Amino acid sequence: MGFADRLRASLDWSGFPGRVSFAAWDLDEREPVLHDAERVVHAASTIKVLTMIAALREVRDGRIALDTEVGLPAERAGGFGVLRELRGVHRLQLADLIALMIVISDNAATNAVIDVVGFDAIRACAEDLGCTATRVQRRLMDVHAPGRNETTALDQARVLDALATGAALPADLTRHALDVLSRQQVRDRLPARLPDGARCWNKTGELDGLRHDVGLLGPDRPRAVVAVLVDGLDDELFRGVRGGPACAAIADLGRAAYAALSGARR
């Protein structure tokens, strides 16, 4: 059996908390395992991977450099991050903003990157990477602005597939993006139950009643893509933005995907 058959044999959605959307495949075999994968959900912070790729394409095209200093807005987004607390910091290099955006999911850094790149460039990047239902139309935490930030598990998997296979960026910028993803500090979902020696390049997303994680798995380099988007979590455990049974369930999916990749049963 290949990756897809091994993974399907290990999955049981009956006890999964909330509404789950799932997409995964081996990057070489390319047979997808999908579960409600085209259901449109709030993207939360998973849009930050697409935003990073769009920004690095601006670097590729010479419109900005990784060491370009970018001004920070006076009004800084709440939620995750540190920049809202660092009122004496007014400018940062693009590379540092991208790192903050991914590694600690800083929303103020994300908005600065969005302002530099522009919504049109992010939309064009999403379309070029094969996304059919992903929309990034407003800044993070700007809940009263028009537009939507939404995605699907299948679109998230497409974005990471394009990054891992070199279709999204040239080799040097691909390495840069993967290095940033590898330093992700939120490790309570896809990476949480991986065996020693396994690697995960991932980005989480969370809001009240919502837990996402999208990532790449492999022993040495990205060899499989996994996207898990979970919403509809109405238990009191999910009223915050950390923890809850969905995180443990996503961790089980990460373990199952890695076991299917290695050819071993859980």
Short description:
By secondary structure, this protein is of the alpha+beta class. It has eight helices and ten strands. Helices cover 36% and strands 19% of the residues.
Question: What report would you give on this structure?
Answer:
The longest helix has 18 residues, at 245-262. The two termini are 15 Å apart. A hairpin with a 2-residue loop joins strand 8 (199-207) and strand 9 (210-218). The strands form three sheets. Strands 2-1-10-9-8 form a five-stranded antiparallel sheet, sandwiched between helices. A three-stranded antiparallel sheet has the order 3-7-6. The protein is of the alpha+beta class and 266 residues long. 36% of the residues lie in helices and 19% in strands. It has helices at residues 3-10, 47-60, 94-103, 107-117, 119-128, 153-164, 171-182, 245-262, and strands at 19-26, 33-35, 41-42, 69-71, 91-93, 135-136, 149-151, 199-207, 210-218, 224-231. The mean pLDDT is 92. It is built from eight helices and ten strands. Helix 1 (3-10) runs antiparallel to helix 8 and helix 2 packs across helix 4.
